[in-house]
Amino acid sequence: MKFTKQLFSVLFIASMLFACSPDDGRDGATGPKGEQGEPGEAGADGAQGDTGTANVIYSDWIVRDFDIAVASETNQQLIATLGLNDIDFDEDVLLVYGRNEVNVLVSEVYQLPYILASQQEYYGFNISSFNGGYSLRIQVSTLDGGSNLFTFFDDFRYVIIPGGNPVSSNRNGNSESTGSKSSGLDYTTMTYQEIIDHFNIPD
Predict the structure, then answer these.
(1) Strand duo 121-130 + 62-63: pairing
(2) Integer angstrom CA distances of residue 20 from 14, 30, 164, 193
(3) 30-58 tens-digit pLDDT
(4) Structural domain that includes position 154
(5) How far is residue 79's CA from residue 82's CA, in Å, rounded to a whole number?
(6) 162 vs 91: CA distance, rounded Å
(7) CA 198 → CA 138, 181, 190, distances in Å?
(8) 8 A C-beta contact, residue 100 and residue 153
(9) 51 in a domain, yes or no?
(10) If you average pLDDT over every residue of the chain, what do you get?
(11) What is the per-residue pLDDT across 186-198, written as a single tens digit (0 to 9) for each?
(12) What mean pLDDT do residues 166-190 have?
């Protein structure tokens, strides 16, 4: 009897091994691909980044120091020497400003060219080229042929905006503008405060 039970056990195990054989039947065909799910909702837009100053060139305020220290009909002051790659006269905008310190708390900033009618004074700027770069000068003159000290502005600064309004027609400080090629903004019509706010320029 014991032998018979052992024989049945061996036969049962053998049948299980044959039942698990890899030769026992083939895998069924792959079922059809399911339909694609509905697209998810778009995420919220990120916050608008601040306008950077990576490519904008600007100077500190440069104290008035004209070449001629006495009253004269004309005068000038060199405020910057620019490299050939600092400005592109076909693409960039050049803004030059004068600052009048009214008192310790109040100052007024004007874009050049500027006419001080009460003193018959003209304040402008000029860019001249030399071998390897350009010179940026403040140029002043009287409108009536008299002699003045030109002390209305205490200091000057400039801002160069790459890709802004072309300055090829603005090298002598006239106020004409041909419009911005890059952003649709005409920077020459913006106030000084709007410019420094727009480009995060320290005052």
Answers:
(1) unpaired
(2) 10, 22, 78, 84
(3) 767 777 767 767 767 655 544 445 689 99
(4) 60-198
(5) 10
(6) 7
(7) 25, 17, 10
(8) yes
(9) no
(10) 81
(11) 999 999 999 999 9
(12) 60
Those residues with Cβ within 8 angstroms of residue 202's Cβ, 6 or more apart along the chain or in another chain = 196
Strand partners, 138: 77, 125
76-114 pLDDT per residue, tens: 999 999 999 999 989 999 999 999 999 989 999 999 999
Token readout for 203 is: 């005052």
Is 166 within a domain? yes
Residue 14 located in a structural domain: no
Q: The pTM is what?
A: 0.69
Q: Which pair of tokens denotes residue 42?
A: 């778009």
Question: What pLDDT score does 104 carry?
Answer: 87
Per-residue pLDDT at 173 exceeds 50: yes
Three-class secondary structure of residue 12 per DSSP: helix
Six token digits for residue 182: 């890059």
Does residue 90 belong to any structural domain of this protein?
yes
Q: What is the DSSP string of 78-140?
A: EEEEEETTT--TTT-EEEEEEEEE-SSS-EEEEESSEEEGGGTEEEEEEEEEETTEEEEEEEE
Token pair of 51, please?
A: 């306008």
